[in-house]
Design brief:
Length: about 90
């Protein structure tokens, strides 16, 4: 995972442009995978401060997107009450 990001950073340095996929829409699973890659790369500490900041910003955006998706799913949870009827919740239990 961190290897992929390291390769992106090295390629970006050659191209003088970091491809952070800011405009790509990730699934929740893809977002978590990307976050793991970003964290691994930041923990290695083998990239420049500027690139680290860009990755950090991308990670913050992914976290916000994940929170939004999880909130939406939580609001759509359906609970079956004692009478066997289906009740949609508003996210409150």
């Amino acid at each position: 995972m961190a290897k992929k990001i390291k390769e992106e950073v090295l390629d970006a340095k050659a191209d003088n442009e970091l491809n952070l996929e800011d405009n790509k829409e990730f699934s929740l699973e893809e977002s978590f995978t990307r976050l793991e890659e970003i964290i691994g790369s930041l923990e290695e500490g083998k990239i420049s401060l500027d690139d680290s900041f860009k990755l950090y910003k991308e990670g913050v955006g992914l976290v916000k997107d994940c929170n939004s998706k999880l909130d939406k799913v939580e609001k759509e949870i359906i609970i079956i009450n004692e009478d066997g009827e289906i009740e949609e919740t508003d996210g409150e239990f």
